[in-house]
Write a structure and sequence with these properties.
The protein has ten helices and eleven strands. β9 and β10 (about 285) form a beta hairpin. α4 (about 90-100) packs across α5 (about 120-130). By secondary structure, it is of the alpha+beta class. The protein has one domain (about 10-305). The protein is globular, with a radius of gyration of 19 Å.
Length: about 300
């Protein structure tokens, strides 16, 4: 996942300093950014298509990250100790609550991504919560000793996902109505649970570049990965070498409601994601390439900036 560079626009910086009445701030971001090959023009324009209510259930002033009073009452979403006491290992319910509250994840020291679950993944997680044996299909939060996806058991470079240990997902950008004020959404979707990995040479040849296994899953989620995203996935490679998709491409490949849900100017990149803890017991949602975020109430410097200093 890429970070965006701050525009070199002195008046905006001066205005921001006056507005916040403070003289000391810290920004965390990568120092070297390259342009996405297929999306060279990344200037954010206005869009008349707001994110649909069925996709983002809580994108309003009552959502976490947009109302300080409400955020204070939902501290179990962000505080590790309160989280563990509240959910008692029910990770499926935790993910559902993060979605319902329109919660944001702080990626890379200040990039606020709103978490959005596809409708089919929501249905699946609700079935896990309601199951008599709630532990059978519970999503796994990997230990702090596994801070990279490549370190989890049975890791293979493939498009495999099981909705437990690894999830299909996308980073989506240029969505003006996304919580966090930066136009970013982190979408997780449902993957084919009946599929299997194939490691023979002929199967690997048709997988994404650099794959060491092929996953024969189907596109089973209308809002999830298309067959093209599955067969060409190469999320272990640098973003600049990968296929970014515009709204029109998503819709051509089968995600017919993409523009209605996120806006016709939105674009994105598919990733595999997994959950892991750190040494402070914080939960991280981490992409296969190592970029990751932790649940945040959005009260960071970058939320105050609201993305206005970023070349989106």
């Amino acid at each position: 996942m890429k970070k965006m560079t701050i525009k070199k626009h002195a008046p905006l910086f001066i205005a921001f300093f006056v507005l916040c009445n403070s003289s000391r701030f810290a920004l965390a971001f990568r120092s070297s950014i390259t342009t996405v090959p297929s999306l060279n023009k990344r200037t954010l324009g206005s869009t008349t298509n707001a994110v649909s209510k069925t996709t983002v259930l809580a994108m309003s002033s009552t959502t976490a990250g947009t109302n300080n009073n409400n955020a204070a009452s939902k501290t179990h979403l962000y505080n590790p100790t309160e989280r563990d006491e509240y959910y008692q290992g029910n990770v499926a319910q935790y993910l559902l609550d993060l979605h319902d509250e329109g919660a944001t994840f702080n990626f890379c020291g200040g990039m606020m991504f709103q978490l959005v679950l596809s409708e089919k993944l929501q249905t699946h997680l609700k079935s896990v919560v309601d199951a008599a044996d709630k532990e059978t299909q519970q999503p796994v939060i990997h230990p702090a000793a596994q801070p990279l996806m490549s370190r989890i058991p049975n890791y293979k470079k493939s498009s495999f996902a099981d909705n437990i240990s690894i999830f299909h997902g996308r980073e989506l950008r240029k969505i003006p109505t996304a919580n966090g004020g930066m136009g970013f959404v982190l979408q997780l979707s449902y993957a084919d649970p009946s599929a299997a990995l194939e490691e023979d040479a002929s199967a690997v040849e048709v997988a994404g570049k650099g794959a060491d296994a092929s996953w024969n899953g189907k596109a089973v989620d209308p809002q999830g990965w298309s067959k093209e995203e599955i067969t060409t996935y190469d999320g272990w490679r640098s973003d600049q070498f990968r296929q970014w998709r515009k709204a029109s491409m998503y819709e051509t490949e089968g995600y017919s409601t993409f523009g209605k849900e996120f806006g016709n100017e939105a674009f994105g990149l598919n990733h595999r994601f997994y959950l892991h803890l750190d040494n402070q017991n914080r939960m991280w949602l981490s992409a296969e390439d190592g970029c990751e975020g932790t649940p945040s109430d959005g009260s960071s410097l970058m939320k105050k900036l609201g993305g206005m200093l970023f070349g989106m």
